[in-house]
């Protein structure tokens, strides 16, 4: 297992690039992927409801099918795994489990738990589905970025892909109505270095008042 004992966050951030050419012979174990996902889910989420699910695709035949759904992007087939980050528009149904666990782990007492559950049940089920999907999509972005940084810290490469047929994906993988695809993340070992990329000047994107 590739590990980093004293990583520098800024180094990892700057070294992470979107890699599209992977070594198809390189494989990452299920145990390592599980560890990365577990660490990634320390990301924050709205009301701590964690509205994400993951579908990890390693089977070559399935990846070949997915490549067609993802507009023939080669990295779908050549990377070690594709991690599909899915959103849950009924994230409020996690509330009892989440806050019961918070109490069990000593993060809050029963009175706070009951207040949080009541507030969640008053707000989220009554919000439009589009609003809940937007919340889940935002939170999925947070967990996805953490996953890509964790992968880089372990010596692996990634690229997020929003370009795929989400309707066909949901149909192929028989997603229930409240679970929807957000992004595909290719995970593997680069076969060729990624291209560098520029960033807009800070003064064009930030304003201080």
TrEMBL record:
Domain (Nitroreductase) ranges: 15-189
Keyword DNA damage found: no
Metal-binding found in the keyword field: no
Coiled coil regions in record: none
Superkingdom: Bacteria
Keywords: Oxidoreductase
Record-level Gene Ontology MF annotations: oxidoreductase activity
CDD domains (alphabetical): MhqN-like
Pfam families recorded: Nitroreductase (PF00881)
Family: Belongs to the nitroreductase family.
Protein name, entry field: NAD(P)H nitroreductase
Organism: Peribacillus loiseleuriae
